[in-house]
Amino acid sequence: MNLKRIFGALLTLLGIGGLIYAAVLFVNASGGARDVKALIIYGMLGLLFFIAGISLVRTTKDES
């Protein structure tokens, strides 16, 4: 088992979770400033984790 691939998969799953949570906040938003701030924070963190995880999985070579 490659530790980098496991970490990349974990980052990807965290990113997907963050993006789903941001989508739920977007659907349930009433337009308050706090809702918009939370939406931006969770959306950006989710996107960052997702991109980092995918790139880590893609660039790690299998050496078994």
Q: Could you walk me through the main structural features you see in this protein, from its secondary elements to its overall organization?
A:
This protein is mostly helical. The chain has one domain. The protein contains 2 helices and no strands. Helix 1 packs antiparallel against helix 2. The protein starts with a helix and ends in a 5-residue tail after the last helix. The mean pLDDT is 89.
Q: Helicity range of the residues? A: over 70%
How many strand units? Answer: 0
The major sheet is characterized as: none
Count of separate DSSP helical elements: 2
What number of structural domains do the residues give? 1
Structural class: mainly alpha
End-to-end distance, in Å? 8 Å
Shape: rod-shaped
Low-confidence segments: none
Q: From the alpha-carbon coordinates, what is the Rg to the nearest angstrom?
A: 15 Å
Which features characterize this protein?
single chain, rod-shaped
Present the secondary structure layout.
Blueprint: H1 3-27, H2 33-59
Quick summary of this structure?
81% of the residues lie in helices and 0% in strands. The protein has two helices and no strands.
